[in-house]
């Protein structure tokens, strides 16, 4: 890298950090109440979706992105070697408590998916549930996953996305800034398109709740 490229990448990295800090603070703030806030949806629908996703994951070296309070930990395949990262230390404290209670081994790390500090081709599979709605630069995050997942490895995303229909789509766009402020998540992310823009190959997109929630399976 030339010194000019170095400078540009430092400036870009500072800019990204500034954009990411509010997300980190928001999740730190809501970490103590997060499970309570999600209690009804978790029991009524999320658990089924998590089951559906994790039933397709083979053991091996897995990276969970945005582990949050660790709601996926009970679903990890037996014998898997899981590294789970999150931007928020508050969320990681909760995930650690859950892993200890369940007696499940997981390497929890404070890390931004937009700047993963693992070498290329480290993991067999990556999983993220309801994460890319809150990553400030989702394409950058997906490109980082592409880098650390082995060639021919799998990436599974469970995400709520913008409903691309007249009225509903524009309404989601209007409500988005307020939702981001309260919940830290964007409700109008075009995640399937972002996956393509990151250069990943989409194998399947399953609609779990109409056009709102999608289970996306991609290959590196
Ligand atoms: C809506 S919560 C979902 C948590 C968990 N995956 C679940 O299914 O319950 C989003 C999580 O992604 C994390 N997150 C947001 N941006 C991130 C980033 N750039 N890198 C890593 N984690 C991030 C947040 O801190 C938060 O814990």
Summary of the model, kept short:
With 220 residues, the protein is α/β, with parallel strands linked by helices. It has a single domain (3-219), classed as Vaccinia Virus protein VP39 (Rossmann fold, 3-Layer(aba) Sandwich), CATH 3.40.50.150.
List keywords for this structure.
220 residues; alpha/beta; Rossmann fold; 7-stranded mixed beta sheet; 7 helices; 44% helix; binds S-adenosylmethionine
Q: What does this 3D model show about the protein?
A:
- The chain has 220 residues and is of the alpha/beta class.
- The chain has one domain: Rossmann fold (3-Layer(aba) Sandwich).
- It has helices at residues 3-30, 34-37, 39-54, 89-102, 138-148, 168-183, 191-197, and strands at 61-65, 81-86, 107-110, 123-129, 149-160, 201-209, 213-219.
- A hairpin with a 3-residue loop joins strand 6 (201-209) and strand 7 (213-219).
- The longest helix has 28 residues, at 3-30.
- It starts with a helix and ends with a strand.
- The model has no long low-confidence stretch (mean pLDDT 93).
- Bound molecules: S-adenosylmethionine.
- Residues 20, 23, 27, 65-66, 68, 71, 85-88, 91, 112-114, 129-131, 134-135, 141, 185 line the site of S-adenosylmethionine (SAM).
Layout of strands and helices, then pairs:
Layout: H1 3-30, H2 34-37, H3 39-54, E1 61-65, E2 81-86, H4 89-102, E3 107-110, E4 123-129, H5 138-148, E5 149-160, H6 168-183, H7 191-197, E6 201-209, E7 213-219
Parallel strand pairs: 1-2, 1-4, 2-3, 4-5
Antiparallel strand pairs: 5-7, 6-7
The protein binds S-adenosylmethionine.
